[in-house]
Amino acid sequence: MTLQSIADALGLSKVTVSVVLNGRAAQYGIRPATAARIVDYCAQNKYAINVNARRINSKLIRNLGMVVFEGGKEKFIPMADYYESMVVGGAATTAKANGFCLSLIINHHEKELDGILERFYAKEVDGFILSGFPVAPSWRERFLREKIPVVVVAGDPTQGLPTVNIDNYEMSHALTTHVIGHTERHRIGFLAGVSHSYVGNERHRGFTQAMAEHGLTPVFEVNGWFSEDKAYTQVKQFLARPTFTCDAIVCANDAMAIGALRALHEKGVKVPQKIAVTGADDIPALHYVSPAISTYSLLPHEQGSQAFLLLRNIAEGKACQQTVCVKSELKLRQSA
Fold first, then answer.
1. 262 Cβ partners below 8 Å, 6+ apart?
2. Is there a contact between 330 and 299 (Cβ–Cβ < 8 Å)?
3. Nearest 5°: CA angle at 261, between 255 and 267?
4. According to DSSP H, which parts of 101-167 are helical?
5. What's this model's pTM, rounded to 2 decimal places?
6. CA geometry: angle at 41 spanning 35 and 43, to 5°?
7. Share of the chain above pLDDT 90, in %
8. DSSP assignment of 184-218, as one string?
9. How far is CA 164 from CA 124, 128, 197, 233, in A?
10. Non-local CB neighbours of 21 within 8 Å, separated by 6+ positions
11. Which residues make beta-bridge pairs with 233?
């Protein structure tokens, strides 16, 4: 049985049958009743698409690989992180709406790149979205050298690969400016993320620029490693110093803001009356924290969606921008 014989039996065109069987009936405006006739006829006659033949004959497979990091010693469960799961969800739902599939690929080690790229050369996927881990130089060099379609979520656009981010620098600058101007705080400390994080570095840069514009010097700038517990320890140590003076703490993510809040609460320091606190990301856990923390949204679902759209355009050979910046917004709450 062929597409032509199905079309002849149903009195339809071969193109209509092909479009329906490839899952793109809605995209091409084919009536649901017509699509149902084709599907029912094929089911009754036990006709199935030869996937391998379709891959060989098609320019696009209409399947993208979503590569996420399995984690190291402290994080063994992929997709356990809220941000990561929302990025994947955004990419998957937008892929479905555009007639694509998304294959989840769990990555554990830099040496796994050969196995990942085999999927591309075997025509299993049209390209890759990388999320949740820094891209190793060896990976970046191969992607560029072999012209593999790839998009990095939260990646550094200066490294040559297409990226999707929120406006981390602008948001951090705006939130720090708010702390300085509207809450009138001038003895401000900063809890940074990790040195290899592009997102963390952009947030640090926004903080530094806002402070410089107001002629202020930070009381402290230390790494909190994006960790609630490490931020708690850092702030607790600062509070133990008799000479410590600070009226605001700007944190590079919400987890550290929660850690800072814990330390201040234990010491009996009122927030925001004595020390204001801000975060970044607007994670769901903030709904259970008091006082409510001022922050800005990471928009992970939107980043995932934009990553799919960008990768699809690259895979289709369309001329498109290589850097996508999703605009976030401040969430000003009680803590600042």
1. 228, 232
2. no
3. 145
4. 113-121, 137-145
5. 0.83
6. 100
7. 80
8. ---SEEEEE--TT-HHHHHHHHHHHHHHHHTT---
9. 24, 13, 14, 33
10. 3, 38, 39, 42, 49
11. none
**Token pair in block for residue 259:** 């850690």
Peptide bond into 272 cis (omega under 30): yes
Q: Which domains does the chain have, with CATH numbers?
A: 3-49 (1.10.260), 63-165+301-326 (3.40.50.2300), 168-296 (3.40.50.2300)
Residues 6+ apart with CB under 8 A from 78: 68, 69, 70, 71, 84, 106
Q: Token pair 């850092």 is at which residue?
A: 234
Provide the 3-class DSSP secondary structure of residue 328: coil
User: What's the CA dihedral at 184, 190, 193, 195 to 10 degrees?
Assistant: 130
Cα separations in angstroms, 250 against 69, 211, 303, 316, 329: 28, 11, 24, 42, 16
Gap between the terminal Cα atoms of the chain: 68
Looking up tokens 């739902």 gives: 93
Element (H, E) at 158: none
As a whole number, mean pLDDT of residues 171-196 equals 96
Sign, CA dihedral 42-45-50-53, equals negative
What is the token pair recorded at 136?
Answer: 């190793």
Strands 330-331 and 295-296: antiparallel
Location of structure tokens 């705006």: 174
Distance CA(126)–CA(111), nearest Å, equals 21
Compute the chain's Rg from CA coordinates: 25
Torsion of CA 122, 126, 132, 135, to 10 degrees: 70
Whole-angstrom CA distances from 221 to 43, 56, 182, 218, 302 are 65, 55, 22, 7, 31
Could you read off the pLDDT of 268-315 as tens digits, one per residue? 999 999 999 999 999 999 999 999 999 999 999 999 999 999 999 999
pLDDT tens readout for residues 313-323: 999 999 999 99
